[in-house]
Specification:
2 domains, alpha+beta, 5 helices, single chain, 139 residues, DNA binding, 32% helix
Length: 139
C-alpha cells in the first residue's frame, strides 16, 4: 500500500489513541502535511512530513510507510521517523516547569503533583546543604 488516509495512519502509528480523535484533530486544524492543513480523508505517502500540533508544541513525523492497520509499538519506528526539532522539546520542558504558575483561571484546585512541582521549582538547591540543628546551651 503506497497511500493511506491521514487519520488512519496517525491512529495506526499510535500518534492518537483512537481514529476519532485523529479525525477531530484534523477538523480542528491541528494537522498539516508538508506545511498545508489536512482534512481527515487526505492521503499520505512515504516521504511526507506531518506536523501535529499538541499544545504547547508541534511534533513532526516523517512517513516511512503508509499503513492503515494498527501495528505494535515496536514496529512504529519502521513506519515513521520522529523529526521534531529539539527546541520544541525545550518548549515542552518549560511548560512543565511553569505549568503551575500560569494556571488558567477556573482550572480548579492544584493537584498534589502540581504542588510538588511548584515546591521543587521554588526551593533553592542550596537549602539542602544546611543543617538547621543548632546546639544551644541552656543556663
Amino acid at each position: 500500500m503506497s497511500e493511506a488516509r491521514i487519520d488512519k495512519w496517525m491512529w495506526a502509528v499510535r500518534i492518537f489513541k483512537t481514529r476519532t480523535i485523529a479525525a477531530e484533530a484534523c477538523k480542528k486544524g491541528r494537522i498539516s502535511i508538508n506545511g498545508a492543513l489536512a482534512k481527515a480523508a487526505r492521503t499520505v505517502k512515504p516521504g511526507d512530513v506531518i506536523q501535529v500540533r499538541k499544545p504547547p508544541i508541534t511534533y513532526s513525523f516523517k512517513v516511512l510507510q503508509a499503513i492503515e492497520k494498527r501495528v505494535g509499538a515496536k514496529l512504529v519506528s519502521e513506519m515513521m521517523e520522529n523529526v521534531t526539532t529539539p527546541d520544541q522539546y525545550e518548549l515542552l520542558e518549560m511548560s512543565h516547569i511553569s505549568g503551575f504558575i500560569d494556571r488558567a483561571k477556573g482550572a480548579g484546585r492544584p493537584t498534589k503533583k502540581d504542588r510538588r512541582n511548584l515546591e521543587e521549582f521554588t526551593t533553592p538547591e542550596f537549602m539542602d546543604d544546611f543543617d538547621f540543628e543548632f546546639d544551644f546551651e541552656e543556663e
